[in-house]
Specification:
This protein is mainly alpha-helical and 136 residues long. It is built from six helices and no strands. It starts with a helix and ends with a helix.
Protein backbone atom coordinates (compact mmCIF):
# COMPACT_ATOMS: atom_id res chain seq x y z
CA UNK A 1 0.00 0.00 0.00
CA UNK A 2 1.23 3.45 -0.87
CA UNK A 3 2.42 5.36 2.23
CA UNK A 4 0.26 8.34 1.26
CA UNK A 5 -2.87 6.21 1.30
CA UNK A 6 -1.85 4.60 4.59
CA UNK A 7 -1.12 8.03 6.06
CA UNK A 8 -4.57 9.31 5.12
CA UNK A 9 -6.19 6.15 6.52
CA UNK A 10 -4.40 6.70 9.85
CA UNK A 11 -5.40 10.37 9.88
CA UNK A 12 -9.05 9.47 9.25
CA UNK A 13 -9.05 6.79 11.96
CA UNK A 14 -7.52 9.18 14.50
CA UNK A 15 -10.00 11.94 13.66
CA UNK A 16 -13.06 9.66 13.55
CA UNK A 17 -12.10 7.88 16.77
CA UNK A 18 -11.54 11.24 18.40
CA UNK A 19 -14.91 12.62 17.33
CA UNK A 20 -16.59 9.47 18.67
CA UNK A 21 -15.40 10.36 22.16
CA UNK A 22 -17.72 13.37 22.25
CA UNK A 23 -20.56 10.95 23.04
CA UNK A 24 -19.13 9.98 26.42
CA UNK A 25 -18.82 13.64 27.31
CA UNK A 26 -22.31 14.54 26.08
CA UNK A 27 -24.00 11.61 27.82
CA UNK A 28 -22.42 12.50 31.16
CA UNK A 29 -22.99 16.28 30.94
CA UNK A 30 -26.29 16.62 29.02
CA UNK A 31 -29.60 14.81 28.66
CA UNK A 32 -28.50 13.19 25.36
CA UNK A 33 -28.51 9.40 25.74
CA UNK A 34 -26.72 8.55 22.45
CA UNK A 35 -27.74 4.92 22.91
CA UNK A 36 -25.88 4.52 26.19
CA UNK A 37 -27.60 2.21 28.67
CA UNK A 38 -28.59 3.55 32.06
CA UNK A 39 -26.35 1.06 33.85
CA UNK A 40 -23.86 1.61 36.66
CA UNK A 41 -20.19 1.40 35.96
CA UNK A 42 -18.38 -1.92 36.48
CA UNK A 43 -16.78 -0.99 39.82
CA UNK A 44 -19.98 -0.59 41.88
CA UNK A 45 -23.75 -0.42 41.58
CA UNK A 46 -24.35 3.15 42.73
CA UNK A 47 -22.30 5.12 40.21
CA UNK A 48 -23.94 6.07 36.91
CA UNK A 49 -22.61 8.13 34.04
CA UNK A 50 -24.78 11.07 35.14
CA UNK A 51 -23.25 11.09 38.65
CA UNK A 52 -20.34 13.34 39.67
CA UNK A 53 -17.93 10.44 39.12
CA UNK A 54 -19.51 9.84 35.70
CA UNK A 55 -19.07 13.50 34.84
CA UNK A 56 -15.39 13.34 35.84
CA UNK A 57 -15.00 10.43 33.43
CA UNK A 58 -16.92 12.48 30.86
CA UNK A 59 -14.11 15.01 31.08
CA UNK A 60 -11.64 12.19 30.36
CA UNK A 61 -13.65 11.36 27.23
CA UNK A 62 -13.32 15.02 26.23
CA UNK A 63 -9.55 14.97 26.84
CA UNK A 64 -9.25 11.79 24.75
CA UNK A 65 -11.23 13.45 21.96
CA UNK A 66 -9.00 16.52 21.96
CA UNK A 67 -5.85 14.36 22.05
CA UNK A 68 -6.98 12.15 19.14
CA UNK A 69 -7.93 15.18 17.08
CA UNK A 70 -4.57 16.75 17.92
CA UNK A 71 -2.76 13.57 16.87
CA UNK A 72 -4.69 13.40 13.61
CA UNK A 73 -4.01 17.03 12.77
CA UNK A 74 -0.40 16.62 13.93
CA UNK A 75 0.10 13.77 11.47
CA UNK A 76 -1.64 15.83 8.79
CA UNK A 77 0.85 18.65 9.45
CA UNK A 78 3.84 16.23 9.50
CA UNK A 79 4.63 16.93 13.17
CA UNK A 80 6.93 14.54 15.04
CA UNK A 81 4.83 14.58 18.23
CA UNK A 82 1.66 13.09 16.70
CA UNK A 83 2.72 9.53 17.63
CA UNK A 84 3.19 10.35 21.33
CA UNK A 85 -0.16 12.15 21.42
CA UNK A 86 -1.94 9.23 19.68
CA UNK A 87 -0.56 6.71 22.20
CA UNK A 88 -1.43 8.98 25.16
CA UNK A 89 -4.94 9.45 23.74
CA UNK A 90 -5.38 5.68 23.39
CA UNK A 91 -4.43 5.11 27.04
CA UNK A 92 -6.75 7.92 28.18
CA UNK A 93 -9.51 6.46 26.02
CA UNK A 94 -9.13 3.03 27.62
CA UNK A 95 -9.27 4.56 31.11
CA UNK A 96 -12.41 6.48 30.11
CA UNK A 97 -14.22 3.58 28.39
CA UNK A 98 -13.45 0.43 30.38
CA UNK A 99 -15.21 1.39 33.65
CA UNK A 100 -18.37 2.10 31.62
CA UNK A 101 -18.33 -1.22 29.74
CA UNK A 102 -21.97 -1.93 30.70
CA UNK A 103 -23.11 1.56 29.68
CA UNK A 104 -21.52 2.09 26.25
CA UNK A 105 -23.25 0.44 23.29
CA UNK A 106 -21.65 -2.93 22.40
CA UNK A 107 -20.42 -1.97 18.92
CA UNK A 108 -18.93 1.29 20.12
CA UNK A 109 -17.15 -0.17 23.12
CA UNK A 110 -15.66 -3.10 21.23
CA UNK A 111 -14.63 -0.98 18.24
CA UNK A 112 -13.17 1.77 20.42
CA UNK A 113 -11.15 -0.63 22.55
CA UNK A 114 -9.87 -2.41 19.45
CA UNK A 115 -8.73 0.89 17.89
CA UNK A 116 -7.06 1.92 21.17
CA UNK A 117 -5.22 -1.39 21.50
CA UNK A 118 -4.16 -1.27 17.84
CA UNK A 119 -2.78 2.26 18.23
CA UNK A 120 -0.83 1.26 21.35
CA UNK A 121 0.44 -2.00 19.82
CA UNK A 122 1.58 -0.39 16.57
CA UNK A 123 2.93 2.95 17.78
CA UNK A 124 4.30 2.34 21.28
CA UNK A 125 6.97 -0.35 20.84
CA UNK A 126 10.33 0.15 19.15
CA UNK A 127 8.92 -0.52 15.69
CA UNK A 128 6.43 2.31 16.20
CA UNK A 129 9.12 4.84 15.38
CA UNK A 130 9.77 3.28 11.99
CA UNK A 131 6.05 3.04 11.20
CA UNK A 132 5.42 6.62 12.29
CA UNK A 133 8.29 7.93 10.18
CA UNK A 134 7.16 5.97 7.13
CA UNK A 135 3.73 7.61 7.10
CA UNK A 136 4.72 11.06 8.31
Amino acid sequence: MDNTILRWCVILVLLAHGVGHILGFLVSWTSISAGFAHQPWVLSDGITIESPVGRAFGLLWLVAMIAFLGAGFGLLAHQDWWRFLAVAAAFISLVAILPWWNTVTPGARIGAVMVDILIIAVLLPGWGEEIAQSIQ
